[in-house]
Give the backbone structure.
Amino acid sequence: MEERCDLTELIKSMCAHCRGIPDEPALNPLGRRPAVSASWPGWCAACGQPFGQDDMIRSDGIGGWVAECCAGDDR
């Protein structure tokens, strides 16, 4: 039987805590969170402009989503 993590009680080989995987996604070379495709429409947390399903958005790090109008691109 494999050893289990004291924190998560998962098998250590399956536990992100034991494997050292960060909770937050790594920032890209420009210091931004990775962009993802929106699953549904919403509003930019920075300026309030609407964004549509499948538009590229980024986490603002505090629970909101920033659209391309304020997040820019990685070029």
Observations:
- Strands lie at 36-37, 42-43, 50-51, 56-59, 65-67.
- Residues 17 and 62 are 22 Å apart (CA to CA).
